[in-house]
Amino acid sequence: MTSQLDTLNRWVDDVARLTQPDSIHWCDGSDAENRALIAQMERDGTLIALNPETHPNCWLHRSHPSDVARVEHLTLVCTKNKEDAGPNNHWMEPAEAHAKIDALFAGCMRGRTLYVVPYCMGPIDSPIARCGVEITDSPYVVANMRIMTRMGAPALARIERESAEAAARGEQPAFVKGLHSIGELDPEKRFIMHFPEELTIKSIGSGYGGNALLGKKCHALRIGSFQAKSEGWLAEHMLIVGIENPQGETHYVAAAFPSACGKTNLSMLIPPEGYRAKGWKVWTIGDDICWMTPGEDGRLWAINPEAGYFGVAPGTSKSTNPNALATIQRDTIYTNVAVTADNQPWWEGLPGTPVTDWQGRPYDPKNGPAAHPNSRFTVSARQCPSWSAQAEAAQGVPISAIVFGGRRPSLVPLVFEARDWAHGVLVGAAMGSETTAAATGAVGVLRRDSMAMKPFCGYNYGDYFAHWLSFDRPGAQLPKIFHVNWFRKGADGKFLWPGFGDNLRVLEWIIDRCKGEAGAQDTPIGFVPGKRDLHLEGLDLDDQALDTLLGVDAAGWNAELADIGRYLDSFGARAPAALKAEQRRVADALARDEAPVRKAVAG
Ligand SMILES: Nc1nc2c(ncn2[C@@H]2O[C@H](COP(=O)(O)OP(=O)(O)OP(=O)(O)O)[C@@H](O)[C@H]2O)c(=O)[nH]1
Ligand SMILES: O=C([O-])CC(=O)C(=O)O
Ligand SMILES: [Mn+2]
């Protein structure tokens, strides 16, 4: 046995001694194992079978009503120095944190089975991929991890191989250790703790996705971003989508939007009718997380570390996201959706009517929406009609453009392009968005959410901005950086831009800008398309709406830049000087020019 498996065995033994399970099960990821787990969960009521005629092999899980979203106030980053976690994270001293959470883990698995879940984030043969092992007492978590990651025997084999290599170099084993228990599902006894310096995660008291499927936000983003900083790559909250034009060229775009702001939708977009007729195609690589690393050619190459989608159900429909709807007709776990009289899953946005709400009560509109606003589906990525075989490419796909975006009902135009990398990093750092139901707390409050990583960056944001800036170096062939806003509202409170499939019109401009083939207006906030630079044929958009969508309001942007300056200052000495200089450059350009001059530029 290799030293790394010794480490793994010792850790499993230590955890078993602490948590006192009745039995231990090492997951191999096989169909037989999955079937047995599902049957057991059906017997004990954890899963409810849905209509097998309309939704074969689909299951409903109802979580505890107090456990329906990520809990940011209970999510901690425990670095030795508080400053290394930064003001963007909740922090606890590691020894104190271990003591506090271990006391909750003591004896918590009595009467339960401890599952050992080896997994790989990314294609199993990819040098960009990384492995982890989650210990959990929740069979629901095991079934979800099997869909969301490459779980089981192949991952354990990779851990074993990497172990031997690490030992030969005299290094410590490098897999991430994640310990999870649903505990008592008591919000008072709930913590999601990260120890990035120890490659360790400890999560107790929640069975909800982002808190409990430790490969996802905990490993692939919080621990991943910390590893990426020291190893020279980027772990980001981004979708990856391939856009194939009628000439057969495919350009890959990575886009960071905060939770419940449209990543899954954009990654599976169906081109508008006119585009489809000309031969445009859209290919899905990933819908939530992107790991990017500079290749030998200087470009950024990206993999999706996940193997499935944990997507927002409400709003998913034939008109908004037909690909997602087609994906989730079979072999899907639904969490906290409503059901119809004939036992089909239901949520707001679908036709038909629910009879039972997400808590299992007879549906009554007085109780609020039938499906929880953060109800989700878990499904294998391969079931998506737009799934790209490039999602399995070991070297990843080359990224042409990086797109940032958020829910901005006012001020921020439909799309603009940063002048260069440093400006793009400022645009990402300055991202703001209205909060959503993906985390507990008030919804619809505007907050800064740099690179959509506010809940997920495992270290000080100031250092993270510096890490982003560091990619601009000799030989780099970096993607261009853009910002989009699908959520601009008119005076009537309605969205001005149709969104969804029509977002391809914006992606087309973005790709054409990358190729030097589209015009733009040069403004102090960056390059904004003029009305004639976008292809808007067939859209029902009046001139006034378009003026608003593509306008730059100088007074509003002056105030915005001042606020961005204060935000950067909140990171103190860790905020990179180069980023502050960039903020001053844009602020000065705006101040010089009350009504920004727009100069048309060719592509
Ligand atoms: N108006 C408008 N709404 C959109 C658009 N794209 C997505 N949405 C809505 O935004 C909500 C969330 O969309 P998702 O694509 O699931 O968001 P996500 O970023 O993948 O969310 P997470 O899984 O939480 O990270 C859904 O209700 C969508 O209907 C768009 O272009 N315009
Ligand atoms: O992490 C989760 O629970 C779901 C998700 O994708 C997000 O909130 O961004
Ligand atoms: Mn997400």
Characteristic terms for this protein:
alpha/beta; Phosphoenolpyruvate Carboxykinase, domain 1; Phosphoenolpyruvate Carboxykinase, domain 3; Phosphoenolpyruvate Carboxykinase, domain 2; 3 domains; nine-stranded mixed beta sheet; 30 strands; 30% helix; binds guanosine-5'-triphosphate; binds oxaloacetate ion; PEP_carboxykinase_GTP_C; GTP-binding
Concise summary:
Helix content is 30%, strand content 22%.
Give an overview of the whole structure:
This is Phosphoenolpyruvate carboxykinase [GTP]. The chain has 603 residues and is α/β, with parallel strands linked by helices. The protein folds into three domains: 3-47 and 68-232, Phosphoenolpyruvate Carboxykinase, domain 1 (3-Layer(aba) Sandwich), CATH 3.40.449.10; 239-307 and 390-597, Phosphoenolpyruvate Carboxykinase, domain 3 (Alpha-Beta Complex), CATH 3.90.228; 309-381, Phosphoenolpyruvate Carboxykinase, domain 2 (Beta Complex). The strands form six sheets. Strands 1, 4, 5, 6, 7, 8, 9, 10 and 11 form a nine-stranded mixed beta sheet that branches. Strands 12, 13, 14, 15, 16, 17, 23, 24 and 27 form a nine-stranded mixed beta sheet that branches. Strands 2-3-19-22-18 form a five-stranded mixed beta sheet, with helices on one face. Helix 2 (31-44) packs antiparallel against helix 5 (139-148), helix 12 (421-429) crosses helix 17 (577-591) and helix 16 (554-569) packs antiparallel against helix 17 (577-591). The radius of gyration is 24 Å and the shape is globular. The mean pLDDT is 96. It binds guanosine-5'-triphosphate (GTP), oxaloacetate ion (OAA) and manganese (II) ion. The site of manganese (II) ion (MN) has 3 residues, from loops.
